[in-house]
Fold:
Amino acid sequence: MEQEKIKLQRVSRVYEIGKGSTIIAVEDVSFAVSAEEFVCIVGPSGCGKSTLLYLIACLEKPSAGEILIDGKPVTEPNPKVGMVFQPDSVFPWLTVRENIEFGPALRGILPSQRQRIAEYYVHLVGLEGFENTLPRQLSGGMKKRVDIARAFANNPEILLMDEPFGALDAMTKEKLQMELLQIWENERKTILFVTHDLEEALMLGTRVIVMSRQPNTIQTILDIPFPHPRSMILKTSSQFQEYRKKLWELLHLNV
Ligand SMILES: Nc1ncnc2c1ncn2[C@@H]1O[C@H](COP(=O)(O)OP(=O)(O)OP(=O)(O)O)[C@@H](O)[C@H]1O
Ligand SMILES: [Mg+2]
Structure:
């Protein structure tokens, strides 16, 4: 059996919100993700999706249960783990190239090699010609591309993405979905991707975790059988539409 890259065992996170009252942000969540999976997480607002990512990144600690990466308990933020959030985290004072080279520079990678890494990812996300541009001169979709290139340039083994395309228009979003799919099809990182968008989850994921609200826990995990490489035309297939309906029903009728 394939080694489990990420494993959560009965993980809960409870927040004290004063006067003895508490909020259970994540309740008794268990699942495992193997190295080459692209797992999407969907669920109603407030069901604990972001908290789950923070827990795996060790930016939050579980109140109960255990999180393992490569079989070892997570006790501090792990350099193997990269994150992309919904707001842009590009540095406004650095050019596109400098933003992408920032992580590799921190890791002590030599300038000539850093340059090659930056060139490779600039090309993958289609930003050729904008290497020396500052973020304020870029559109929202272009900034998101810089963000994704930056995350991949750090060569993480695991990428946690929290609604990274949530703020984009439909066309830019589809383009970036395809670019992300292509990068994943080439590099096969472990990706955990939170989204509100059911079609996005079905388009990208090899599995989709469906969460419920109160209890903030896993309701179902769906295997997504569509073969790779995938393209947008998949959306027009009847099998895709069936899965879309199934996922919608799980979210709206079963909760
Ligand atoms: N630092 C915190 N202190 C107190 N409560 C929190 C904290 N972080 C999250 N919560 C609560 O935990 C629950 C889950 O929050 P979380 O942000 O993980 O949800 P989500 O699924 O990401 O929602 P959305 O889809 O709106 O982003 C919510 O009820 C939220 O109010
Ligand atoms: Mg969230």
User: Anything to note?
Assistant: The radius of gyration is 19 Å. The beta strands are 4-16, 22-34, 38-42, 64-69, 72-73, 81-84, 158-162, 190-194, 207-212, 217-223.
